[in-house]
Amino acid sequence: MKNNHYEIRFGGSGGQGMMLLGDIFAKAAGELAEREVVLTRSYGPEARGGACRSELISDTEPINYPSVRKPNFVLAMSQLACDKYCKDMDPNGILLIEPKFVHRVPAHIKNVYSIPMTQLAIDETGKKVAANVVAIGAIAALSGFVDVELVRKAVQEHFKPALRKANDKAFDAGVRAAREEMEQLDQQESKSA
Amino acid sequence: MENTYEIMTGNEACTHAAIAAGMRFFAGYPITPATEIAELSSEWLPKVGGKYMQMEDELASMAAIIGASSAGAKAMTATSGPGYSLMQENLGYAAMAEVPIVVAYAMRQGPCQGVATLPAQGDIMQVRWGVHGDHPIIAVAPASVGEVYTETIRAFNLAETYRVPVVIMTDAMLAHMSERIRIPDSSEYECVDRKRPTCPPEEFKPFADDGTGIPPMASFGDGYRWYCSGLIHDETGFPVSDNPQLTSDSIKRLVGKVENNLKDIESYEEYKTEDAEYLIVSIGLLSRSVKDAVDQARQEGIKVGVFRPITVWPFPEQRLAELSQNKRKLFVCEMNEGQLYHVVRESAGVTPVVQITQNNGKMIAAETILKALKEEI
Fold first, then answer.
1. Which UniProt keywords apply (chain A) (predicted)?
2. Which of A54, A156, B21, B51 could pair covalently with B153 via S-S, beta carbons 3.0-4.6 A apart?
3. pTM attached to this predicted model
């Protein structure tokens, strides 16, 4: 797989905003970073409950096969999503989980990040509905496949201006938490080395 | 020229382009995976002075767009397998009465209700022969959201030029997936309007051949009287049932509108065919998976290329026949039990033709195609 080819899957339950995550990252990578993007989504009753997902491929070259086959990044916002959507992951890929809902992760995945996105959303904005914006910030920082500031811009442009302050706070909380997690992991790795 | 890029789904691109091409009337009945075209038309058409009509079923949808087009509007409906089945009788009427219409057709899996949310290519033959009797029809099969845009514009232009029904064939995946596409500037394409009569109304013969095979078309309400019939008719449009010569001539002219203009209508893509010893024929979104397989095969030294008809109907037989001549084998990759396969065999001459099919609602992966290819060479 080429280095500039990035596959990402956003998995959760219907209503957690997984379709929105796809839209935001497609906007950041496609419209703002001017890359090729293909976005596919769950369609049908699962979008209203059960496990649902949206999937994004980003590349500097034209994308032929439109489905994600070996995701470099998986977000699991629910246990069902985690059980269902990690099987085909790149072994060096990143799994981000919401610890409030995900209690078991597959053993074969090494890079697991656990960030309490729902709690951070409540702490920062008073609303758990902002958990997906925390997730956007965290994914932007952890994945690095598109510039964090372009992702922030995509969030800002998507929502009405009245929500900007709250979304910025949620987004920053996600970025911060992701960077802290990465630092901790680095330290652990250097100790063990 | 300023380049405008947007991220949109296949269904969004189809609606957007239809309006850009001049669509001002849409009638439809929602059906997965084509529903968004109706939904967006209902939102966007009134803003450009167009009309959206929610119909009680697909029979009425087809009837309504024929009526609107007869009154001069560029009109479209959108549907999928079960809905397209219901449209057939009136679709034949559009072909017979030579009323330009466009049908956006997002293919889904299986016969009858099948699986509404999964893509397939099981309706290739239905698009050609769903209507009874010999009739002209044009069908285009775009491979990307960007091409949905440009082919939708072309579909309207072809319908207006030749006064035939034109079908835009996508599938459940292409209809619903989003891609970053370049929106062409209106200066980059032409919007064709049907040829109008120039004679005084009292001299107007609505189905008289002016030498091109495509009679000028008047709109209901603009002063020209014409009789619009699905029966075999003479120049005036009135039914004739006891004239074998006229019957034969009428059908030959109808079918000839497409058959005599293949050069203008046909379009296809050739990918790495110059030095190819093997050729894979594939249409629509699936052809992109085939391209991946071809790239991988070439890395292993297998000289293979892709022939992708963009107009599925008329099928670019002559070009495929030329390409087939020096090939060791042809492959047909399609998401059905074998439909395009039979058409390809007609063009292949003595070159053997091998099927690569998968019919489970999933896009065929490049690896599967490559494996099937290697087993046969």
1. Oxidoreductase
2. B21
3. 0.96
